[in-house]
Amino acid sequence: MVNDTGQLYTIEGIAAALIMLFSAYLVLSATSVYTPGDTHISDMQLEQLGTDALRMMNTPINSSSAKSPLQEIVETNNATYFNETFLNYVNNKTELKTDNLHYSAVVTYRNITNGNTTWNYPLSSNRNLTGGEHPVRVTEWVLANIQAGSNVKQNRAILVEVLLWRD
Amino acid sequence: MTDNAGTLSIDFLAGFTIFLIAFIYVATLIPGLFIGLQSRTIDYDAVAYRTGVILVEDPGMPYNPSWENLDDYHKGEVLRFGLAVSKDTPNILSSQKVDRFFCTTWTYPDDYRSRVIFGNYPYMFNISFQPAGSNLTRSIGDDPPDEYGYIRRVVKIKGISNASIDDSTIQTYKFNSSDNVTTDVFSIHLNFTNLLEDEPNPAYQINPYNDQIMVNVSGMNAKVIPIPPITAPLPTNLTAIQICRSKPISTNLHPPVVCFANFTSPIVDNNQVDLPYPIENNLSLIIPPGFITTDLADANTQLYFNLTFDHYNAGILSEEKGYLNSTGSGPFEYNYDPKNITLPKLQDGVLEVSVW
Amino acid sequence: MAGLNDDAQWIVLMGFVVSFSLFFLAMLLNQSTLVGQTTAEGVLDFPKNDVRDVKDVITESVMLYTSGRDSPSNATVVQLDIESLALSRKNAVVGYTPIDEIALPTSSDKHTRISIHYNNGVTEYNEYWTSL
Are A116 and A151 within 8 A, CB to CB? Predict the structure, then answer.
């Protein structure tokens, strides 16, 4: 009953289909879809901008022995001054245009009285993190005379960590 | 034998159907190949980032003597632009370098491509700079199209130091002698050892090789009161600016001061003038950046600029109380004392690079 | 060979041609698309700002100690701060000359010398730093 006259046709058809599917798979798995790739570039731009801004805030204005604005902010815990200065640095563009970046900053320190663990306290933020943003983390070391996790007020090295994102 | 019955065999149909389904499926996958192929835009961001780093974190080449002090005739010797004060102070720009960078000596795009953009592909670009608190945006290049690579850098610009000498300074340092003299000599002292060692950080340093030295004197009232029959007051003339120096050598660490040259066409009141130059109320003297070379003064030199004011006017000597005379009290020190000098301050700014 | 039916040859051959040309085109175009992505990844991976920043804070702390504005015990507290915060928050091993081994400047040698070490697992940085 079964006739094997058309075997070759069928086999050749299947072979051709398999070849095409296989090469298409190879080719497509080699290219990646660019949406995730693009975020590397915008991440890099944001990270460079954030570290620039923090670094400029940590530069004394008049001479190398003076205190930098960021040192004073950490020592006096002045959130409004940090907010104003940081947003100014990060959102100003040329030709008086502005960008729309948001941030959330904390101060991280070593807690000497609690077994040298790492604790932090919030410094300033201009929007609460909801979890849907794609933030970039930038940090800056600051030598400040504060009392953090110890019984005395002395020169300590702390890390100001800022999460920066674009709406 | 060919069959002319007008029907195709089932086997052929089955084979052809499988083939066609597979082919159509593959054909629908082809547009997915081209989704992300925006290679140009991605490359532009990389070039913009690199250009931003070269401008903001590198002092440029040649570094010593600095490229911004080369004149237009030697512009071919500039190998690479860089706006930073030094390689140890990234993001701190030198205002002289920024001015020179935006000068019209350089043609867009060729001069810039070989000195800051680099690469074989002829990129178009736009570099814009805006200091904080200013409406003026300086920029090089065309306006960017819809898709371009971009980077923004936050910077600080190192300002210019200047010495302001007014009535109170003169009283404090006793720069006005009360004798009647025909000429007054006022000496400005640059102690290179102090200038370079008291503030070793290039971002705050007064560097006489690369920065300008500016002295502003106000309230001079330097008019010569004539003896009758001449009724109109005559001006005092700035007749000479002598350059004197004391360069220690191994055998003599405190050699005498030797005056060896004259500064023949100085910049007074913002213009290059010829001496003698009449002075009335104010005097603004600028020693331009690049004038003091390492040959003229090295890191141990004491350099003096002696300004000579002549009251002997048209053969008429008259009463004049000596004004701005430092012979009795010692030269004016151009150092880091905030009573004497307004120190260079850092001002914010933003630099944007767009490449397409 | 005479009995073999070669009617489907063209279909198979065209299949080969189409798949190979697709493959070739995609390989070619694929090369250029990776340029920017790997550059941005490379920039993100290299800890340029981390190294500069940690070096700045270390030299600031050491200069405070050698100029007498900070006591040795305080400078040691800062040293422990830097080392532990770098490890826990920056994922980097940072080390520099212990405070009691740093030679204070004398009249004959005004310079301070320390050795700085940084390693974040991908990049390692070592420097012998001398003050100006």
Answer: no
A-chain CB neighbours of C23 within 8 Å are 23, 26-27
CB A13 within 8 A of CB B19: yes
Is the pTM for the entire model greater than 0.90? Answer: no
Quick check: C81 and A26 CB within 8 A?
no
Q: Is B238 helix (H, G, I), strand (E, B) or coil?
A: strand
DSSP sequence for B77-145: G--B---BS-TTSTTEEEHHHHHHHTSTTSPTTHHHIIIII-SSS---EEEEEEETT-S--EEEE----
Select the residue of A6, A41, A60 nearest B11 (Cβ to Cβ): A6
A20 with C18: Cβ contact below 8 A: yes
Q: Cβ contacts (< 8 Å) between A61 and chain B: which residues?
A: 345-346
DSSP string, chain A: ----TTHHHHHHHHHHHHHHHHHHHHHHHHS--HHHHHHHHHHHHHHHHHHHHHHHHTS-SS-TTSPPHHHHHHHHT-HHHHHHHHHHHHHB-GGG-B--EEEEEEEEEEEGGGTTEEEEEEEEESS---S-S--EEEEEEEEEEE-SSSSS-EEEEEEEEEEEEE-
Distance CA C15, CA A18 (A): 9
Q: Quick one: which of A66, A67, A105 has its CA closest to A86?
A: A105
Nearest to A124, CA basis, from A91, A165, A164, A83: A83
Task: Tell me the one-letter amino acid at B113.
Answer: R
Tell which residue, C114, C117, C59, C115, has the closest CA to residue C83.
Answer: C117
Q: CA of B82 to nearest chain A CA: how many angstroms apart? A: 17
Q: What is the pLDDT of residues C77-123, one digit of tens each?
A: 999 999 999 999 999 999 999 999 998 988 888 899 999 999 999 89
Chains A and C form CB pairs within 8 A to the count of 126
Amino acid (one-letter) located at B43:
D
CA distance A40 to chain C (A): 6
How far apart are alpha carbons C61 and C70 in whole angstroms?
A: 8
Q: Token digits for B263? A: 């500064």
Q: Which of A67-76, B131-140, B272-281 has the highest mean pLDDT?
A: A67-76
- Asked if ipTM goes beyond 0.95, one says no
Distance CA B218, CA B280 (A): 10
Tell me the chain C residues in contact with residue A15 when contact means C-beta distances shorter than 8 Å. 12
CA nearest B354: which of B24, B2, B51? Answer: B51
Instruction: Report the alpha-carbon distance of residue A128 to residue A142 in Å, rounded.
Output: 24
Q: Is the peptide bond before B122 cis (omega within 30 degrees of 0)?
A: no
Which residue carries 């020169």 as its tokens?
Answer: A155
Closest Cα in chain B to A61: B346
Q: pLDDT tens across A140-160, in order?
A: 999 999 998 899 999 999 999
Residue ranges of B 85-124 with Cβ closer than 8 A to chain C: 90
**Distant-in-sequence, close-in-space partners of A137: CB < 8 Å, separation ≥ 6:** A161, A162, A163, A164
Q: Which residue of B has its CA nearest to C32?
A: B39
From the list B26, B42, B201, the residue facing C37 with the nearest CB is: B42
Mean pLDDT of A77-86: 94
**CA gyration radius for chain A?**
28
